[in-house]
Specification:
Largest sheet: 2 strands, antiparallel
Radius of gyration: 17 Å
Shape: flat
Structural class: alpha+beta
Order of helices and strands: EEEEH
Length: about 80
Protein backbone atom coordinates (compact mmCIF):
# COMPACT_ATOMS: atom_id res chain seq x y z
CA UNK A 1 0.00 0.00 0.00
CA UNK A 2 2.99 2.37 0.26
CA UNK A 3 3.70 2.31 -3.46
CA UNK A 4 2.13 4.54 -6.06
CA UNK A 5 1.28 3.46 -9.58
CA UNK A 6 1.77 5.80 -12.52
CA UNK A 7 -0.76 4.81 -15.19
CA UNK A 8 0.00 5.44 -18.85
CA UNK A 9 -1.68 4.70 -22.15
CA UNK A 10 0.17 4.55 -25.47
CA UNK A 11 -2.33 5.15 -28.26
CA UNK A 12 -1.65 4.87 -31.97
CA UNK A 13 -2.10 8.19 -33.78
CA UNK A 14 -5.02 8.32 -36.21
CA UNK A 15 -2.64 8.94 -39.13
CA UNK A 16 -0.47 5.94 -38.12
CA UNK A 17 2.51 8.26 -37.64
CA UNK A 18 3.36 6.71 -34.29
CA UNK A 19 2.02 6.78 -30.77
CA UNK A 20 0.99 9.38 -28.25
CA UNK A 21 1.66 8.36 -24.66
CA UNK A 22 -0.58 9.85 -21.99
CA UNK A 23 0.78 9.70 -18.45
CA UNK A 24 -1.81 10.08 -15.71
CA UNK A 25 -1.26 11.28 -12.14
CA UNK A 26 0.07 8.69 -9.67
CA UNK A 27 -2.52 6.52 -7.95
CA UNK A 28 -2.08 6.35 -4.19
CA UNK A 29 -3.06 3.20 -2.33
CA UNK A 30 -1.86 4.27 1.14
CA UNK A 31 -5.44 4.82 2.34
CA UNK A 32 -6.30 1.16 1.63
CA UNK A 33 -5.31 -1.87 3.69
CA UNK A 34 -7.59 -4.57 2.34
CA UNK A 35 -6.19 -6.51 -0.63
CA UNK A 36 -9.60 -6.65 -2.30
CA UNK A 37 -9.94 -2.85 -2.13
CA UNK A 38 -6.44 -2.39 -3.53
CA UNK A 39 -7.20 -4.81 -6.37
CA UNK A 40 -10.52 -3.08 -7.10
CA UNK A 41 -8.83 0.33 -7.32
CA UNK A 42 -6.09 -1.06 -9.55
CA UNK A 43 -8.66 -2.71 -11.81
CA UNK A 44 -10.47 0.63 -12.12
CA UNK A 45 -7.19 2.33 -13.07
CA UNK A 46 -6.54 -0.30 -15.75
CA UNK A 47 -10.11 0.01 -17.03
CA UNK A 48 -9.74 3.79 -17.29
CA UNK A 49 -6.53 3.45 -19.32
CA UNK A 50 -8.08 0.84 -21.65
CA UNK A 51 -11.15 3.00 -22.25
CA UNK A 52 -8.94 5.79 -23.62
CA UNK A 53 -8.52 3.62 -26.72
CA UNK A 54 -10.47 0.41 -26.25
CA UNK A 55 -10.43 -0.28 -30.00
CA UNK A 56 -6.62 -0.49 -29.82
CA UNK A 57 -6.46 -2.81 -26.82
CA UNK A 58 -5.26 -6.33 -27.56
CA UNK A 59 -7.58 -8.83 -25.90
CA UNK A 60 -5.25 -11.84 -25.87
CA UNK A 61 -5.53 -13.27 -22.39
CA UNK A 62 -7.74 -16.36 -22.31
CA UNK A 63 -8.90 -15.93 -18.73
CA UNK A 64 -11.70 -18.50 -18.89
CA UNK A 65 -9.93 -21.54 -20.29
CA UNK A 66 -12.79 -23.90 -19.50
CA UNK A 67 -16.48 -23.22 -19.82
CA UNK A 68 -19.32 -24.88 -17.90
CA UNK A 69 -21.11 -25.44 -21.20
CA UNK A 70 -18.56 -26.54 -23.79
CA UNK A 71 -21.01 -25.56 -26.57
CA UNK A 72 -20.45 -21.93 -25.57
CA UNK A 73 -17.15 -21.05 -27.25
CA UNK A 74 -16.22 -17.71 -25.72
CA UNK A 75 -13.07 -17.13 -27.76
CA UNK A 76 -14.31 -17.70 -31.31
Amino acid sequence: PNSKVIPFAPLRNADNSGYTVTISPPVDFSDLHDEAEIAARMNKVIETEIMKGVEQYMWLHRRFKTQPNEDNHLYK
